[in-house]
Write a structure and sequence with these properties.
The chain is 24% helix and 30% strand. It is of the alpha/beta class. It folds into 3 domains: 3-112 and 236-304, FAD/NAD(P)-binding domain, CATH 3.50.50; 115-232, FAD/NAD(P)-binding domain (3-Layer(bba) Sandwich), CATH 3.50.50.60; 324-405, FAD/NAD-linked reductase, C-terminal dimerisation domain (Enolase-like, domain 1, 2-Layer Sandwich), CATH 3.30.390. Strands 1, 2, 3, 4, 5, 6 and 18 form a 7-stranded mixed sheet that branches. Strand 4 and strand 5 (91-94) form a beta hairpin. Helix 1 (14-26) runs parallel beside helix 8 (290-304). It holds the Pfam family Pyr_redox_2. Belongs to the FAD-dependent oxidoreductase family. Keywords: FAD, Flavoprotein. It comes from Geotalea uraniireducens.
């Protein structure tokens, strides 16, 4: 065995970074190592579409520099993937054959972009910095770009690619952002995006392509598209391979308890690879957002230091800006909620939809336009507060009063 560490972290994104900060804040006596297959210091995946579209410099993506890890006294094992966990012997094997020991292990290895069976030179994904670098090189030469999947990768990419390009979005379902916002909000956004030049192909898919100087796409509907780039944004697959091989309990993600501990007492998981309790529904889920990764990593790090901490559950918390529209979705945002209140001002484009339980406590909210109040709705959900605007709605049926109540 090459080296022994008190704590080892696999993954250098939101969860890994928060774990490092928490460990450093509470203890300077533990030896810590962080392992990641990439050679870069931590960076923001959320900003990569801005970089690809030329809206920000590559250097602005980085959250920290290499000196950050040195200041924390952390051993950085970058550029080498973790390939095997021996849970019983507390050992981790790296891609170069080296083996390191750990007292406690945090798996924060994230997820990978889903691929499609068709392959060609112009097909891309956008998950890692290398993907963004490739797209940034290809995009300036493109006249037309196409994306598959209408989520938080495809739509930001098309938005920031620029209005001078012909932009196509191919969606398998009957609406966009189906995993982010409710159906009513989705319809409002679709109208806005199409008005901004997006060409939308719903309930369709790419079934074949021919590669030449440009890609010739054949869609299931019979349509044919000519494009220079095809971005695959059909969601992600959690990196659970290490955990499965190690014998940890895995469903869609690595199963964790309310202490962010896996089925092994010395191994924890956080972020896009971890499957734990949803705060609102209590169901087991992978939330897949930055805030959840940070919260889970904080709890995991404290418990690895033998400082008992409990995680109350993850919650949807997505905020983005695409096609000039601010969007936020917080908590439970499905129309099967016991009660739903919504208001839409077509003049300003501002939309608010609040989801309530049987006691009028806030379960979640969808917001379009001026989403600075998203944090307030997050607080309402986490504190299980009664919707404060209800008193204004009672007995007053004017549209203006409803907007005031939802402000």
């Amino acid at each position: 065995m090459d080296q022994q560490f008190d704590i080892v972290i696999i993954g250098n994104s939101a969860a890994g970074m928060q774990a490092l900060r928490t460990l450093h804040r509470h203890s300077r006596n533990h030896s810590v190592a962080i392992v990641d297959r990439e050679t870069h210091p931590a960076y923001s995946r959320v900003l990569t579409p801005y970089y690809v579209g030329g809206k920000t410099e590559r250097s602005n993506l980085f959250i920290v520099d290499h000196a950050f890890y040195h200041r924390l006294g952390v051993a950085t094992l970058f550029g080498q993937p973790a390939v095997e966990i021996d849970a019983d012997r507390h050992r981790l094997t790296l891609g170069n054959g080296k083996t390191i020991g750990f007292g406690a292990l945090l798996i924060a290895s994230g997820a990978e972009a889903r691929s499609i069976e068709i392959s060609a030179a112009g097909i891309c994904t956008l998950r890692h910095l290398d993907d963004a670098d490739r797209l940034a090189q290809l995009l300036p030469e493109a006249r037309s770009v196409t994306a598959i999947g209408a989520g938080l990768v495809s739509i930001p990419f098309l938005s920031h690619a620029g209005p001078e390009l012909e932009r196509h979005l191919v969606v398998g379902s009957n609406r966009i952002f189906s995993r982010v916002v409710d159906a009513e909000a989705s319809a409002i956004l679709e109208e806005r995006f199409v008005a901004d030049g997006l060409q939308l192909h719903k309930q369709d898919d790419v079934v074949d392509l021919a590669g030449g100087e440009r890609l010739e796409l054949a869609l299931a509907s019979g349509k044919r598209l000519t494009t220079d780039m095809l971005l695959v944004g059909k969601g992600v697959v959690p990196n659970t391979g290490l955990a499965r091989q190690a014998g940890l309990a895995v469903r869609d993600g690595i199963l964790i308890d309310d202490h962010c501990r896996t089925s092994h007492p010395d191994i924890y998981a956080a972020g896009d690879v971890a499957e734990g309790r949803d705060f609102v529904t209590g169901e087991s889920t992978i939330q897949g957002n930055w805030l959840t990764a940070v919260e889970q990593a904080e709890v995991a790090a404290l418990n690895m230091l033998q400082l008992p901490a409990t995680y109350p559950g993850s919650m949807k918390n997505n905020t983005t800006e695409v096609f000039g529209v601010d969007i936020a979705a917080v908590g439970y945002c499905r129309d099967d909620a016991p009660r739903v209140i919504s208001a839409h001002d077509r003049f300003t484009g501002r939309f608010r939809k609040v989801f309530l339980d049987e006691q009028d406590r806030v379960l979640g909210a969808t917001l379009i336009g001026e989403t600075n109040d998203a944090g307030g709705y997050y607080q309402l959900v986490t504190t299980r507060a009664v919707f404060p605007g209800e008193r204004l709605l009672r007995g007053v049926n004017s549209y203006a009063a409803r907007l005031l109540a939802l402000a």
